Amino acid sequence: MKTETSLPAKCDVAIIGAGPAGLSTAIELKKLGVKDVIVLERQSVAGGTPRNCGHSIFGLREFKRAYFGARYADRLVEKATEMGVRVVLNTTVTSLADGGLLHLSTTGGTSDLQAKRIVLSTGIRELPRAPRFVSGSRPLGVTTTGALQSIVYQKNKIPFKHPVIIGSELVSFSALMTCRHAKIKPVAMIESNNRITVWSMARLLPLSLGIKLMLETEIIEIIGKQQVTGVKILNSNGSIETIDCDGVVFSGQFQPEAALLRIGNLAIDQYTGGPVVDQYGRCSDEIYFATGNLLRPVETAGWCWNEGIQTARNVVQSLQEKLPDTKQQVRLQICSPVIKYVVPQVLAKCADDRKYTFQIHLTKPAKGLLSICSNSDVLWCKKINSLPERRIILSVPSELLLLKTETLQINFDEYSRH
Questions:
Q1: CATH of domain 10-122+256-319
Q2: What's the pLDDT tens digit per position in 51-64?
Q3: At what angle are helices 20-31 and 69-82 packed, to 10 degrees?
């Protein structure tokens, strides 16, 4: 695959992050006639997280065929370079300045890049051990799913033989498949809730592999000096048990890779940990857009690919000054602990007949009435029956954007359980 090694001083659109969302944004921008598109990637290879996934299924939505992760990542880069996108590797954006100026660190030193529009597509990362407050010593053999996949697929090494996997999100099952590929036999999958996070039928996978699935169980301590020798867990009945193992894989609990936002002046959403955006993906500084999993943890590669396409179309409209200005906005206020987050968080007021899409996730399994209100007036409502980490997509009419209000409340009234 061909990638660039040098940088100009200016470009039309700079994209930070060469994963599925960033590359699809770049490809669509070129299709729409944007002349100078540059993708900046801090790693030595482009393609994003899928590159470390040694399993299928990737690419059905994008390429109408199934790929394993690494080949899918290659196809993304090949498509981008075919369209004339410049992909610059080993380049880290160190800060976001006003007016679309990026400060960069490269293998050749530091430099600046001035762009008319900038798209943030830095993705997500799994929550490692430290923020989970798991006590104990710090032996070898403690990792995340992403690090495990890199060790196995990129470095061809085996970090342990019999680990425990913490979590039951989709990525946790990806960790299972990575272990199977490497002939690693996990001894247990540990989940703190009373059900697995992904679809219920997925619980059959660890059982079919002879891996104990332990629900309502928490890891409280890691044991071992040089290498992990075991973990202490807290069971639902309050008892403490020790499991013999030689590794621990912390999976899921994704967080947006938002370090750049914190050292810049872009507003950060307290619920997602990513940037505050409007319905066009614009950040609090309208030169900056955001797309992909930076917006919320976590979506599939195919979802991020589609989101990048729509972001590119919005960027083109912005370059053509066809988007409504950001001076008149409606803020979406979460008013229920059942609602985990909503994306977008603000809406630019505009007069058109389109419906606008919101993505909402819940904090727990819940049935009830989801409503959008202006003070005490209910403007829109819908019955919801969903589980945590399930994507809830809502389309609401644009009439809500024409109201003389600066804030809309999002409520969730649970049905009583008998």
A1: 3.50.50.60
A2: 888 777 888 888 88
A3: 30
